[in-house]
Amino acid sequence: MVKRLTPWILAGPASLLVLLLLILPVGATLLATFADAKGWAAPYLAFFNSGFRRTVLWRTVEISLITTVISVILGFIAAYVVAQMPGRLKSIMIIAAVFPLLTGVVVRSFAWLILLGKNGILNSALLSLGLITEPISMLYTEGAVIAAMVYLFVPLMILTLSGVLEGIPKDVLEAASSLGAAPFAVFRQVILPLAMPGLIVGAVLVFTGSFTSYATPQLLGGERQMMMGTLLYQRAMVTFDWTGASTVAAIMVVVTIAIVLVMTRLARRLNPMAA
Amino acid sequence: MTVSLTLDSVTAHYGSTQVLKDLSLAVEAGELVSLLGSSGCGKTTTLRLVAGFLEPTSGSIRLGERDLTRLPAHQRNIGLVFQNYALFPHLSVRDNVAFGLKQRGLSATERLKKADAMLERVGLASFAERMPSALSGGQKQRVALARALVIEPPLLMFDEPLSNLDAKLRIDMRVEIRRLQRANGTTSLYVTHDQEEAFSISDRVAIMNAGRIMQLDRPEVLYQRPANSFVARFVGFENLIPMQVSARDGANVTARTEAGAALALSQDAFGAIPDRFVLAARPDGLAVTRAGEGTPAGIPVTLGIRTYLGRAYQYQCSTPGGDYLGNGPLSEPLEPGSAAVLAPVPEQCCILPPEG
After folding, report:
1. Which of A178, A180, A272 sits opposite B104 (nearest CB)?
2. How many whole angstroms separate alpha carbon B231 and alpha carbon B215?
3. Which of A37, A130, A189, B64 is most buried, judged by most C-beta within 10 A?
4. Residues of B with CB below 8 A from A190's CB?
5. Residue in chain A lying closest to B82 (CA)
6. pLDDT class for A1, splitting at 50, 70, 90?
7. Helix (H) or strand (E) holding B189
């Protein structure tokens, strides 16, 4: 009897914590959106009837997708190079790649303020090189947000991918070239499909991270480049529109889950091993 | 199409370490040559050079008329079978076999036809749809073999292909490899550290040590007539006795061991005997007889442990100059500690050049 209960007892505390701190608050938030006096769909209709909020939603999806694609490409190249390195150098490179993760998101986003500001390092450099005559305003643009987010998420991508790439046996690649596959064919027909699981995990992490980010769009996008995270904050803390904030949250949850599902589907299609 | 493989004074380095020293090797068209040696002898390096995974520091590699030396691996058209099978884990058995055909631009239907025909030949026709992870080791190696054969390469290379299989399967696969290689008449290079495997599968075997080929010959010759002490030791000549000629009388030679024991040897029986040489013998090449009146001249020894071998007794024999292993007849077991005489049996012994 005790033996049968042991797993439950062991799993208990963690399950309770998840229930109390995750499922209940998120559930409550979602339920709150259906409690509107004008009918359950009213908050959602209000959201989608607002051109501004639709733009925010679309912008968030767009920035997250662009960030994901760029991070996948940059992360793949970096991870591939790192995976080829001899043991010691490899560890050093991985530590170097992960090092930025040790500082907070705010600090790292703030660094981009210094880089991209009107009197920032980039503008000063371009001015002194004579490439421009007056500073370009780079802050509070989509580009600034995307650059900072790529910078935030590439280490995550490198980390997930270098593990997967290292796991591809060298003789499998050698077998491919001995059978006549040119380097690009080896990449497309062997490396890429074998790296697909890591690629998808990394992409999902980057996408959800970007989609739900708050600090980076707040600091580098400001009011002009509002994203779902910043909109949520504004609804809740500036306008005290709790139903509106909950609606934003609910839409974020649904979109995230939908995109993750599509990505895993895609992964399964691209990778017969997962079938 | 059968062509020969020629390596001409190939030298190779890993960093600053020289791993191949001026190696020359010719594999005749349709022949299977093994590179045999312990790890680090350069056999795998040689194979990797031919495959194009390494570049030689100097020398040239030719396959028939084609110069492979600086050609990228994917343009060499060589079928390779790896120790760890190296199957593509994301492709079915059929797609694994068809991989090389795809690179050659064959149409999907043609690939399917050829891959299935090749799977039929290695007895895996019913496994075409499976993923490699659902196969046993022996089946995996058959797929690897099929994958290498289906591209009809002018050269096949095997890198310890049987090392990961159990003993019974190893012998089956050995026969299978030989059968397919013979049937296609494909020139082949086979790397192994297993002497029995090399001798049983090859037309000729190259015994390698420290980046050099010590001897390249038919297995029978290597086994009976090793050319030097290294090869002799490798093929089981446990007694290597350095000797020096002290007197010559026509065909009869008197030679002494370093400890001074004298042996009378006839050049009619042993062949030409240089002034300094190594007498190499397996235990059955040194006959042990009781010391006493009427025994032939030989190296006087004190007998140590006696081992029953079924066809003879084997004795550990100690002398001031070193310990030897010799065999004595079953009819006359000798006791440990007794004095005996060791006499070389001419047809079982080799006269080798001195070491070093």
Report:
1. A180
2. 7
3. A189
4. 88, 90
5. A171
6. low
7. strand B187-192
DSSP class of residue B125 equals G
Backbone φ, ψ for residue A253 (5° rounding): -60, -45
Its pTM stands at 0.84
pLDDT of residue A26: 84
Cβ B72 vs Cβ B103: under 8 Å = no
Choose among B53, B91, B151: nearest Cβ to A180: B151
- Interface touch B86/A169, C-beta < 8 Å: yes
CA distance A141 to A225: 6
> Which member of A171, A177, A194 has the closest CB to residue B73?
A177
- Helices and strands of chain A, counted as H and E runs: 14, 0
pLDDT digits (tens, 9 = 90+) for B143-152: 999 999 999 9
Write the single-letter amino acid at B253. V
**Span A35-80, pLDDT tens digits:** 777 778 888 888 999 999 999 999 999 999 999 999 999 999 999 9
Q: For Cα atoms B69, B75, B78, give the angle at the middle one, nearest 5 degrees.
A: 85
How many residues comprise chain B?
A: 356
How is domain A38-274 classified at the architecture level of CATH? Answer: Orthogonal Bundle (1.10)
Q: What share of chain A is helix, strand, coil (3-state, %, to 5)?
A: 80, 0, 20
Task: Give the pLDDT confidence score for residue A274 in this predicted structure.
Answer: 44
What pLDDT is stored for residue B212 in this prediction?
95
Question: CA B191, CA B207: separation in Å to the nearest integer?
Answer: 10
Which residues 6+ apart lie within 8 Å of A234 measured at CB?
A226
Judge contact between B35 and B85, C-beta under 8 A. no
Q: Are B220 and B265 in contact (CB under 8 A)?
A: no
If you average pLDDT over every residue of chain B, what do you get? 94
Q: What would the two tokens of residue B76 be?
A: 């060499």
Cβ–Cβ gap A177/B72 under 8 Å:
yes
Which contacts of B73-76 are long-range, i.e. CB under 8 A and separated by 24 or more positions? Answer: B73/A174, B73/A177, B73/A178, B74/A177, B74/A178, B74/A179, B74/A180, B74/A181, B74/A182, B74/A183, B74/A185, B74/A186, B74/B103, B75/A180, B76/A178, B76/B51, B76/B52
Q: Domains in chain B and their CATH numbers?
A: 5-233 (3.40.50.300), 237-349 (2.40.50.140)
Q: What value does the mean pLDDT take over residues A172-179?
A: 96
Position B105 scores a pLDDT of: 95
Non-local CB neighbours of B21 within 8 Å, separated by 6+ positions? B11, B210, B211, B212
Banded pLDDT at B1 (limits 50, 70, 90): low
Closest CA to B80 of A72, A32, A181: A181
Confidence of residue A275 (pLDDT cuts 50, 70, 90): very low
What value does the mean pLDDT take over residues A160-177?
93
Q: Lowest-confidence range among A116-130, A181-195, B144-158?
A: A116-130
Residues of B with CB under 8 A from a CB of A: 51-53, 72-80, 82-84, 86-92, 99-100, 102-104, 131, 144, 147-148, 151
Q: Helix or strand or coil: residue A140?
A: coil
Of the candidates B324, B343, B344, B340, the one whose C-alpha atom is nearest the C-alpha of residue B292 is B340
CA distances from B167 to A93, B63, B172 (A): 43, 34, 9
At residue A238, what is the residue type? Answer: V
